[in-house]
Amino acid sequence: MSCVRTRLKSNGSGQRSCVDRWLMTSVICRNRGIVEGGNKLSVITSRRAFVLAGAGLVATARMAPWPVQATNRYDHRIVAAPGRASLNGGPTPTTDVWAYDGQVPGPMLRVRQDTPVRIAVENRLDQDTTVHWHGIRLPFAMDGVPGLTQPPIKPGERFIYEFTPPDAGTFWYHPHANSLQQIGRGLAGALIVEEAEPVAVDRDILWMLADWRLNPEGQIASGFGNAMEAVMSGRVGNTVTINGTVSADQPVRAGERIRLRLINGGLARIMALHFENHRPVVVAVDGQPCEPFEPEGGRLLLGPAMRIDVMLDMQGEPGRRYPVIDDFYDGLAYPLTHLTYGRQLPLRSAPLDAPMALAINPLPMPDLAGAERHELTLQGGMAGGGPLAGVGGMQAMHGAAAWAINGMSMIGDGHGGMAPLLTLQCGRSYVLTLRNETAWWHPMHLHGHSFLVLSRNGSPVPHRQWGDTVMLAPKDRVEVAFVADNPGDWMLHCHVTDHQMAGLMTILRIA
Ligand code: C2O
Ligand code: CU
Ligand code: CU
User: Which residue has the higher pLDDT, 203 or 48?
Assistant: First the structure.
């Protein structure tokens, strides 16, 4: 019986290396017999908590090295099932949805940084599902991509996800199977990783934003996967909710400081939020703390899957209401909600005198001088020349593709058998230049890592902004850098779900 730990190498930088990541999280066994084989397995599992069985996870991800469930214990359980929601906040839930634990959004999971957590996911839908822990740097086998990192969770089955979140911050979870419908019908929730030392605020609040397309009867409109929408801006809805209901007022108190965690859990809607008469200070992007800064024009740009944490000092007048406006789409501005001040006396007369900066996370700093560089060009979509203008020699895996990255399209939710676009060496630093040759906006997301956003159209991006999802405006060129320290076949895709499904997706192999 031979257990082989792959990638036993150090990057010598003192940062968390590939070795540590593996040792902390998993062991690869090359010999399938080990799964049945008695003592040694239990020794390993008790120490490591779970085992990846099967051959060659990193080298040949398609050979289904599925995680073996080594435990029945869990800290949290979420059940995906059909349910009903009251999206307008009325007393009777009337909209048929798919929900985690009967709620939209799903329950907010609060876990602790550097503390192992096990989350059981039970599938009571009538179709396969998985859960992807968006933005968490976790072992490949826990990433929740069906066919690539695990077998799908079949109806009636359960899967226990197990990982140790290295980073504190605002993350979220959602299915990575039949994503258009499963996210579009309500399956999404916030995953908050708590800092060891919380920052000083009066309240820590979450706005999990969702965008629904409702028909006149208040039911979720059919027509998911419309080919015309897929080549344009995707399935943008007509009803935006905060924490599951359309919101007119968010009660606040004068003088208080709020940490507001914003998550855009929509399929396709991009948001640009303004807090009238208020000055939000951005303290984290995609969960990763940045140098606190006031965004240009007070505008918070939030594409699908993106998160921003802001500090808001409530300096408005008691008894007044201040709109929060989303004006991303030309001519379609609407009030998302209002900051509605109670009549109480201010909590304090001047803003709280405490630092806003959050403690930084243990992200490995890329070595920019020694980094290897690659270009990824986003192509396709509706353009002057038709849907596939600019995509030459495109090769689709299944069905129709309307988008491509470097001329290749991977469509759907992810599956085994896709050749990686690039193979990166574990422990090495990389700079990726993302070039948007299309006429559309794309929030581009990389699994399993956070990257430092270096520049946009040649100008340096200030305030140390890390992310797992970076927005590209039409024709944008963005440079990001990261240390490829997490072995696996990681998806890189646009988080406008229709774009992902129609080909704006690829795989980076780290081996
Ligand atoms: Cu939010 Cu492929 O992920
Ligand atoms: Cu992700
Ligand atoms: Cu896109």
Answer: 203
